[in-house]
Amino acid sequence: MSAPGGLLGALLTDPNRLVHTLIDAIISYLADSWPWLVPIAVLGAAAVVGRITLLRRRQRMFGSDAHVGSDAHVVTVLAPPTVPAGGGEVLWAQLSGLLRPWHQRLLHGQPHVGFEYAWSTGGLSVRLWLPGCIPTALVRRAVEAAWPGAHTTLSNAATPFPATHLCAAGRLRLARPEVLPLRTDHKSDPLRALLQTATGMAEGEHALVQVLARPATGARLRRAQRQARRLKAGRTTPRLSSLFRLFAHTPQRTTPAATDPSHGTEVRQSVNKLTGPQWDVQLRYAAALPSKTTTPDDTQARLRGCAHALASAFSLYAARNWLSRHRLRTPHPVLTSRHFLGRGDLLSVVEGQLPLLDMAHPSSLSGPAQGRPQPAVAPLPAAHFDRIGRHQRNSKHGRGEQ
Predict the structure, then answer these.
(1) What angle do CA 17, 22, 23 make, to 5 degrees?
(2) Reported pTM
(3) Could you count the other beta carbons within 10 Å of the beta carbon of residue 235?
(4) Cα–Cα–Cα angle for 211, 87, 307, rounded to 5 degrees
(5) Closest CA to 373 of 202, 143, 123
(6) Bridge partners, residue 129, by sequence
């Protein structure tokens, strides 16, 4: 009986020669296949280099590169004495016209805008970050038209906080399919919790909520509509899982499953969400403290407490869908560049009254027309974050003792 050949035979008869046999097989394959492998490798390398070059060119065009961000601008919004309701919906519906045609998106990309709540020792600042390719006059007129009596100031883009500060940051993403909406029927101002959480900052402390948004493209909307049709039909299983079940010869369901009592409500809400302009959104939050204020343990606890308080304020928007937390690596370069990383979440204009849509929610930002906008709630002392961090630290020690 002849010995088995190939890699399996080498493994069974002489395991020590497996590596040499594998190397010889690879060399023999490359020697026989190089006439068609070399062109494929060259084309693949050219595609990768071209993609990287195109992305860098778009960053320079948008002014979102940290080294060449002089073209980007920041429009600071000064709220009027009386803030009318519904101004945010008017503003973002008007800015939906920034959507470029498909051929321009293919060559130059789709620019995005950034909406920021920034807290520091001086108070709250509400601002719009604009890349260099978006006319600032257009956005300033849209803001002043959406909220009569509001004023805007223009300045060059800068870092939200010094790079030497310690930072704790994260991202908020939709936890369930994006066709399911967030909460919209707020009985009171949902921004009060966020404004109350981040007020009363001590010297050198910073807090930031950053929302990057761009109009959703046709392909993105078609993908959401297909997802809504699958939700209506009751087929919520991903296609990849269905493919695995097909190859595994798993018995397929021949009769429809029992209908969930909330299925009809979810279908209606998904239809309402996909009606009207849609935005591709990325939501980030961060807290920054000077590196030499207190002991390292107290600084870390204070950072965790501030970041936890910022993220917890968005739990008011939980309904059929909610926002889950994700870690944000290298927060300072990401927050400074305002670069739109990958694909965001699909949100409608009227959905959830998020900070993206709700600069002018009733009384949240009421203030003098010529001064800095001030929250309509009483500020908390800076020790508020210390108590949160101390409570988290004590809870952690208590779990370890148990």
Answers:
(1) 100
(2) 0.73
(3) 13
(4) 30
(5) 123
(6) 74, 114
171 forms bridges with which residues in the sheet? 284, 326
| Angular region, 74: left φ>0, alpha ψ -120 to 50, beta rest | beta
Three-state DSSP at 281 gives: strand
Per DSSP, the residues of 301-367 read: HHHHHHHHHHHHGGGGG-SSS-EEEEE-SSHHHHHHHT---S--EEEETTSTT-TTT-TT-TTTS--
Interatomic CA distance for residues 129 and 83, integer angstroms: 21
Q: Which of 9-23, 101-115, 291-305, 324-338 is most confident?
A: 324-338
According to the 3-state scheme, what is the secondary structure of 177-244?
A: CCCCCCCCCCCCCCHHHHHHHCCCCCCCCEEEEEEEEEECCHHHHHHHHHHHHHHHHCCCCCHHHHHH
Which amino acid appears at position 398 of this protein?
G
As given in the structure block, the two tokens for residue 401 are 């003792």
Structure token digits, residue 395: 């809870």
Would you list the DSSP string of 64-77?
A: --SSS-TT-EEEEE
The CA-based angle 65-141-90, given to 5 degrees, is 95
Q: How far apart are CA 19 and CA 26, in angstroms?
A: 11
Q: What is the pLDDT of residue 98?
A: 82
CA 305 to mean position of chain CA atoms: 21
Question: Residue 89's closest CA among 360, 323, 271?
Answer: 360
d(CA 277, CA 287): 32
Residues in the chain: 402
Tens of pLDDT, residue by residue over 232-275, are 887 655 555 556 666 665 555 544 455 667 778 888 888 888 88
